[in-house]
Amino acid sequence: SCKSCEGNTFTDYFGAAECMACGKDTVAFANHTGCDVESCIFSNEGMAPQFDLSPLNKPVSLIGSDSGRLELSICSKLRGDAMCLDENRHPVDAFSCVVDNKLVGHNAGSLMNVYMSYAGEVTPTSTMSVRLRYTHGSPCGTSGDFWRTEVSFACNTSLTEFTLPVLDSMDNCLIKYKWSHISSCPMCIDAVDYVEQAGECEDGHQTVALVRKSECNGPQVLSTEVRSCTKAFSVSLPLVIAVVALLTLLVFGIVIVGIRNKKMSERYEMLLNDSSLGSSRGSGLKDGIDDENL
Asked: H or E stretch including 268?
């Protein structure tokens, strides 16, 4: 008999007798026909940081480790993709698919789980990363295990164009990808991740830009504006040192000249005094001679 799904559960086909719980950190649609992951925007319980993986949400195809083919679509299922068909030639309803050498597709994960974590020890500058794990795949070989897929996202602000994920490993029915891209970075927060950078002051105006300073998903330059400015006179350090040295020499020279002038003045006064004393003595001797003649 049919069952109405409640809470964070869903069923994606008509007439299902049971409901399935949505994966970790995903929420069921209001009509419980699936889990709301197609926006491809994820956050830690609705708080920062947020990750916008939507630019990476398109079907990609890679060569598997056993020469088979791998199909992946991180947020939209491959149900309409003719590249992944089961043995009855029906599209596989999954996010991840393994296509064997007989061109038969196998569900490698149809339920998304979202994990957010910090790499290594948590510090004030640590950056959170996101990882998507897909479970509820089809049976894998004769081991009794099931196919699973895991995609780890690595922040790289230099990769802004679309890139393909890299197959990291494919062991024990677990497929691991690593996807480096700017979309793998936390979304930038304007008030936190941008800093003002002012250009040169020209004719009373300068351009001030908000420039990204963090490893985050956002434009390199958030905004620019032209402001009035006053050009400050700037002097280089070598010039300052040269001026100070010149002034020091000038002051030193003035002091030396002053000392020399003082000494010359003192010697000149001594010569004047000696000359006056000699004149006085000569005048006294002459008066004495005149008295004797009288």
From this structure: helix 237-293
**What's the CA gap between 157 and 182, in Å, rounded?**
4
103: which 2 tokens? 């061109």
Q: What's the confidence (pLDDT) of residue 285?
A: 45
Please tell me whether the overall predicted TM-score, pTM, comes out greater than 0.70 for this model: yes
- Pairing between β-strand 174-181 and β-strand 148-155 as defined by DSSP bridges: parallel
* Structural contact between residues 181 and 159, judged by C-beta atoms closer than 8 angstroms: yes
H/E stretch holding 248 reads helix 237-293
d(CA 141, CA 107): 12
Residue in 17, 25, 29 with CA at minimum distance from that of residue 41: 25
Pairing of strands 20-21, 60-63: unpaired
| pLDDT classification of 85: cutoffs 50, 70, 90 | very high
> In Å, how far from its chain's centre is CA 101?
43
Taken in order 217, 62, 22, 172, is the CA torsion positive or negative?
Answer: negative
Distance CA 127, CA 222 (A): 21
Q: Report d(CA 70, CA 169) in Å as an integer.
A: 12
C-beta of residue 199 within 8 angstroms of C-beta of residue 208: yes
The tokens describing 143, both together, are 């081991």
